[in-house]
Structures are given as structure tokens and as C-alpha cells.
Amino acid sequence: MTNYPRDEFDRVPEFNTRVGSHHANGWAQSAASTTSGGKLRWVVIAAVLVVLVGAFAYFFGPGGLKPIVGSAPNPTETTSAAPSENATSSPSETESATPSASSTIDDDDVLFGQLIGVYNGASIAGIASAGEDVLSEAGFTNITASNWTRPAETSTVYYTSEAYRTTAEKAAEVLNIDEVLQTQNIPNRVTVVMGSDDTLEVR
């Protein structure tokens, strides 16, 4: 056997477990990747479990479910709102609800100087004169009093045309007479017949 001089290639460790460098590096990378991936997976699983346990303890623990803010009524608001619901109306509202007793007839449309005949149809002495006095006190200036040709049960104020309607209504209002009728068969354009139902006091 030929002996050759030893060179650098002959200086190899007697016990060497090294394999090809590319195989060794590939195995190391694969092992490292597998190890890190497994650790990350367990970390994620552990985090999810912690969140689930915390949520369960929050909602179903000894304290029960937490009330949602604003869901429960505020006692102070309920108490303060109660008096307003049962409050009585103000004096001004009560007074405004009372109907006015003032006349609905515009005095500017009334012919206070128009001749008005007041007739006694109730066979009560002095009732026509009493009606004349009341009309005079109300502002009428041209009034005559006499007896009606026949008995009348209902007091009535008659007028001949629309031009005297407001004047007739004013006379009826003053004398507290409900019946106001239009007719041509009367002695004056505005005629008042005092009937037996009249409540006017004779002076």
C-alpha cells in the first residue's frame, strides 16, 4: 500500500456527526418553524380561553347581569313629573272658559232714533209704559206706548225689513224677549208686543 503524505483533507475529526450542510440547515429551519408555530397556536388558544372565562364571569357571576345605562327610570324625574299631571288649571284659564255676558250686537248698527211702538198685549196695566222706560234707558229716543188690538201670549218684536232687523234685535235684547220676527202687517217699522209671558216689572 502506497503511503501518501497527509494534507488538510486528512485532518478530519474522528467522530463527526455532521451531514451535508444544506440538509442540516433545512432540518433546523423546519424544526424551528414547527416549534414557533405550535407555541403561537397555544398562545392564541390560551388568550381566547381567558377572554371567554372573563366574559362568563362578568355576565353570569355573583353580581348577575349589569344593568344597561338609561334603562331604569330616574325616580327624581318620575316624582317631579307627577304634580304637573294633576295640577289644576290656572285662574286665567278658568276665567277665560266662562262665557261672556256682553251683547253680540254692534250698537253702531242700531237705529236708536228710529220710531219704536211698544204695545200692551198682556192686559197688564202699565206694562207698555214699563217697556218704554226700559228702551229709553237703553238709549232709544223715539218710543211710543199703546195697547195691542188683541191678547198676546208671547212677547214678540216685529220689524218690516232687513234694514231694521238689528234695531229690533237690540230692542228684544234689552227687553229680554226671545221672539224676533219680520212682517209687514205692523203699525211701525219696529213694533214691540208685550205678551202675558213677559216678566218685566211694572213700576
From TrEMBL:
Q: Name one Pfam family in it.
A: LytR_C
Report the residue ranges that make up the LytR/CpsA/Psr regulator C-terminal domain in this protein: 116-197
Source organism superkingdom: Bacteria
Give the record's keywords alphabetically. Answer: Membrane, Transmembrane, Transmembrane helix
Residues covered by region (Disordered): 71-105
Q: Where are the transmembrane segments?
A: 40-60
Give the compositionally biased regions (Low complexity): 76-104
Protein name listed in UniProt: LytR/CpsA/Psr regulator C-terminal domain-containing protein
